[in-house]
Give the backbone structure.
Amino acid sequence: MNNAQMEILILAILTSLTCTLCGTFLVLRKMAMMSDAISHSILAGIAVAYLYTKNIHSPLLIIGATITGLLTVALVEVLKNTNLVSEDSAIGLIFTALFSIGIIIISKYAHNVHLDTDAVLLGEIAFAPFRRLNIGNIDFGPKAFYIIGSILILNILFISLFYKELKISTFDPALAFALGITPGIVHYGLMGVVSITAIGAFDTVGSILVVALMTVPPLTAYLLTNKLKHMILVSGILGILTGVIGYHVASLLDVSISGSMASVAGLIFAIAFIVKVIGVKPLNF
Amino acid sequence: MYNKALEVNSLTVAYHDNPVLWDINVSVPEGVLMGIVGPNGAGKSTFIKSVLGLIKPVAGSTKIYGKPYKEIRKKVAYVPQRGSVDWDFPTTVLDVVTMGLYGDLGWIKRPGKKEKETALYALDKLGMEQYKNRQISMLSGGQQQRTFLARALVQKADLYLMDEPFQGVDAFTEKIIVNLLKELKREGKTIVAVHHDLETVSEYFDWVMMLNTRCIAFGPCEDIFVGENIKKTYCNQPVYSLVTKNNFKNSYVSEERV
């Protein structure tokens, strides 16, 4: 394994681990499809920010994407609260609208740069080692390491600091409200973290497979565990496994890395599902 | 000293154009054990949720011990309907009970040894200590309800608001809950609970609020809980059929769907 391959492998692991962390709470809040919505609609934010800066690596793109992510969540809620549209229809309406705006902007103004539609949909983890962080003459490794690494730290900090608040507002939002732990703040905090995570993962695995990494390992862990801490731990481990196995399968068969990772995640879920149906007791630590 | 635990003034709540609660005026004295009865869709749960600020009323105000809810949050414990949460959530009985203390802990701070002991004490009181490490979906309906009550108990509140604490519980649990309510009353606490079984109202509660969008009657059971008021509360429904258990089961089904 050469250096570049090693870097891709590490990136695959970091990405899927990061996605499983915030994904756990999405799954428990029955919001798996919200990750799909956010990961698509942030494209509009990225595209608009690109139009403004004309620089694909500007930090403004991350800010634009986060705002669009939160906007998606807010718009879905507004639409749902009219009681005229159900939540899933509202999700379908909002994210396709924003996603299509993003696609139009990109195809019209950004067709010469890395922001092409294929890259958006499928990511390009294999090219990540080419974009390096150089300070002076020293090579500090791929830029993606630092981006996804910071997002991983953000996820860990968010979940460990607000663990109690996330737990109670997910399990019993009415009680959380009555106790003075405003579930709305926790909700938008989580959605902000999900949006930022989606951008990081977007660059490596693309907007479609972010959903697989955010929901499949946590769902597998949900089948296998009885405690929230264990669920987070197991889904993190499964995320790492998904990255490792996914990368090796891809290089063995010479296929898309992101596709392979998502398939591996699905396969692990299928195994866990069969084990559960056969009736093996949940893990007790 | 303030001797009104709960005061509600001209409370009106509506979903879109439909009034759910209309001009409710009640004041519950400290230390009473009050049941709220009324047909499905009468606004019983809505009443409790409005007091807690979970639902925004169109008009009216509520005061708890003379203060708005936000200022006196720590004196109030809430027991939601059992069906309002996902019992498949990956958590244990002890963990759920500890959640009752999250408000005291404030943001970020985690529960420790002291919180665990408080939770275990409450579980013991409800005969649930042996199930403390059980995942909550592995409990019977009665055990789930007792878990919720233990969670309210750790809050050491003065006013308890309970939404259908007797719904779908076994006879053993019902007895434990009744004893607990009476014990809380002896300690001078005030309890307001939504109740469905008209047969047991006078036995379990000393005050009653009879609700059907409007407050039909309100006061001590012996004065208020009489045939005429019951008829008025349940309007067009024949009273005799309401007291049969079978009818209650059916009525639960329709209410849960709402």
About this structure: Residues 238-258 of chain B have pLDDT under 50 and may be disordered. Chain B has one domain: 4-257. The beta strands of chain B are 4-15, 18-29, 33-37, 59-64, 76-79, 159-162, 190-194, 207-212, 214-220. The longest strand of chain B covers residues 4-15.
